[in-house]
Amino acid sequence: MRVLHTSDWHLGRSFHRVGMLGAQAEFIGHLVTTVREHAVDAVVVSGDVYDRAVPPLAAVELFDDALHRLADLGVPTVMISGNHDSARRLGVGAGLIGRAGIHLRTDPSASGTPVMLSDTHGEVAFYGVPYLEPALVKDEFGLEQAGHETVLAAAMDRIRADLAARPPGTRSVVLAHAFVTGGAPSDSERDITVGGVAAVPAGVFDGVDYVALGHLHGCQTLTERVRYSGSPLPYSFSEADHRKSMWLVDLAADGGVTAERVDCPVPRALARIRGTLEELLADPGLEPHREAWVEATLTDPVRPADPMVRLGERFPHILSLVFDPDRAPDDPAVSYARRLTGRDDQQIAEDFVAHVRGTGPDERERAVLRDAVDAVRADQAVREVAR
Ligand SMILES: [Mn+2]
User: How far apart are CA 1 and CA 173, in angstroms?
Assistant: First the structure.
């Protein structure tokens, strides 16, 4: 069985000030062409269909168009909700849409109930595990304390139990939206940290033939059977080096996996350039980036006048300007933002305690801070769902 694995469409998202709906529509067209030209048997979309819980109308219309085109292909599709989607909203009409062969899985309690597809070698069970927010699903799974690993492990227990009750040789595919250990993040995923541990080990997924992951926006292979497709388009400059693609996965009669990358259309190249304003305006080596979406980091010790206007004359598609003046590291003028770079909320809170008191928090105080950070995140998650 040939499966096309994609995720993280983020319909409705823009890239800095550029609307991406046109590029997203082009991607949908490319997806449809790929399904046809490569004789795909099933499409899986592993979450973050939309960028927001309440997406703009144009994004909903594009999704509607995608649903119709997928249904017209007559190729079954399985989709799950991601941490950016409102699972409840995305799930509206799922029963009816399912009759057209597009199976939207947004209900955590149905994680262990597969969509059954078959080829000449027999049946393949597709289990859609929507993004599981620990605080919201722990009761469903009968858990006292919940983190990302425990809730996903509980969903996988249900999947393995369902699979064990099926005829031997039944092949299996799991869709999940999670941060799996070993994966490399970028700047455009929303942090899902709870209890200081966002990442779950790949071993949680043992016992199934292929795991189609969503959440991380770079295409990556964790094991032969556990892969991220990544987003079809870049959504931050940290993805300048990404090659955006989908996985074309062949599931053999014995459950063996071979996978091939299918590239996505590139609307415009990305470039990150760095130097003083005069260097960036004069360096002939930067000529290839003239038509790219550009992020320029200026290292001038003093901010030059009108840098965006002047850079825009050479790079008409410049979208982002960063100031990182060349100064000694102990210079008090080194920006606050720079000191916060790469630190999570917990570390920032702990550093604040150390800064105002002179000594950092002890173990008990650290636990208090951790609980407070988790409570804020859980509260945010509840609001997202309620919206
Ligand atoms: Mn995403």
Answer: 11
CB contact at 8 A, 80 and 128 = yes
* 372 Cα to the center of ligand 1, angstroms: 25
- Report the C-alpha gap between 164 and 141 in whole angstroms: 19
Phi, psi dihedral angles at 222 (to 5 degrees): -90, -45
Residue 321 phi, psi dihedral angles, 5° rounding: -130, 130
pLDDT digits (tens, 9 = 90+) for 120-150: 999 999 999 999 999 899 999 999 888 999 9
The answer to whether residues 106 and 88 touch, using CB atoms and an 8 Å cutoff, is: yes
Place of tokens 């099926």: 166
Distance, C-alpha 157 to centroid of its chain: 24
**Which residues, in sequence order, are CB contacts of 266 under 8 Å at separation 6+?**
244
Mean pLDDT score of the chain: 92
Please give the distance, rounded to the nearest whole angstrom, from the Cα atom of residue 10 to the centre of ligand 1.
7
Contact 244, 207 (CB under 8 A): no
- Length in residues, the chain: 387
CA of 168 to the centre of ligand 1 (A): 35
What spacing in Å lies between the alpha carbon of 231 and ligand 1's midpoint? 7
- Ligand 1 centroid–CA 298 distance in Å is 29
Identify the pLDDT of residue 338.
65
Report pLDDT digits (tens) over 67-91: 999 999 999 999 999 999 999 999 9
pTM over 0.90: no
Which conformational region is residue 230 in: left (phi greater than 0), alpha (psi within -120 to 50 degrees), or beta? Answer: left
Tokens linked to 210 = 């292929």
